[in-house]
Amino acid sequence: MGIRASLVAPWLPLALAAVLTITLIPAFAVHPTHHAVVLMPARTAAGAAREKQRRASRPAGQRAGAVAAVARPVLAMICMGTFFGSTQTSLSSFSASFATYELAGLLYAVMGLSSAAAALSVAYWPQRFTANARWLACAALMAGLALLLLLPSTALPVILVLLVLGLPVGPLMVTVFAIGGLAAPAGKLGTVMTAPASGIVAGTAIGSSIAGQLAQHRGYATAFLVPVCAAAALFLLGAAAAVVLHRRNRTAAAG
Predict the structure, then answer these.
(1) Which of 115, 119, 111, 117 is nearest to 149 (CA)?
(2) Domains located in the chain, CATH noted
């Protein structure tokens, strides 16, 4: 899309996106592969009432823990969206300093390529590398590599940085969605998995707004601090959750 925008016109990617939405989404909806999904029996009103009563009878601490477990991936995806939005906006300011705004799309796509490839590789990672460990490792790597965005002043170095920066991004997104699926209460998987996806959209708006203001008044170098802070927030969120889980497991073992 970025290449087409650079070579033809900025409106062309929007038109192509509209065409893809009109054609591919209905094709996906009516594709016969949905027959392969095993349908679960619908819950009866009595079963739903018993489940609601069971959740209400749990101690306050357990209810708070369940809410926190669901909120964690949502907050993580808000941070991830902030990372995406601020990076793209900062790259727009960066590319405008020596070329044109359209170049930012091509630069941003470099991170997307490595991110997608790394995300696919998660299926082959060893099982002993737990989800919490993956979260901490990828978030720490993201924060460290994002600092490198402050150094380049030309296109080629920033391309190399973005290519490497994308490597922990994809696996972290896969990990957060996996944790969200594990934390979802019975019968609420669809709702819980929708919330992190919405968090990305909200975070992208937040990151674009903050980075845009900083780029306008302080320059692109200052705007690049926003993705660094977003990645650091992801690490702190994962570390806090790991501490809580460790204490909970220790308490359960002692009891």
Answers:
(1) 111
(2) 64-254 (1.20.1250.20)
Stated as kind and residue range, the H or E segment containing 255 is none
Task: Record the tokens describing residue 221, joined without a space.
Answer: 């170098």
pLDDT, block means (10 residues), the chain with 255 residues: 63 83 87 69 58 59 60 89 94 82 80 92 88 91 94 88 94 88 68 82 94 92 94 91 68 58
pTM score above 0.85? no
* Contact between residue 200 and residue 81 where contact means Cβ atoms under 8 Å apart: yes
Q: Is 80 within 8 Å of 207 (Cβ atoms)?
A: no
Q: 186 Cβ partners below 8 Å, 6+ apart?
A: 51
Cβ atoms of residues 90 and 226 within 8 Å: yes
3-state secondary structure of 184: coil
% pLDDT > 90, the chain: 38
